[in-house]
Amino acid sequence: MNELQKLPMGFGMALFQNPAAARYFESLSEPERRKIVEQTHGITSKQEMQQFVSSLVGNPPASY
To answer: pLDDT tens digits for 4-32?
Structure first.
């Protein structure tokens, strides 16, 4: 998971705590990953980030 080192800290930590979401994120193309990372910039709390990451599993959000 070397790619996780390049992610915003809160997002990377939330992915680390949710292995299914991390596997999903790793399976995406680079443009798809970038789009998801961009969506995390407006998230301001740990709980919101965990909810966002959980929403990636099986049903990626169109926007957050």
So the answer is: 567 899 999 999 999 999 999 999 999 99
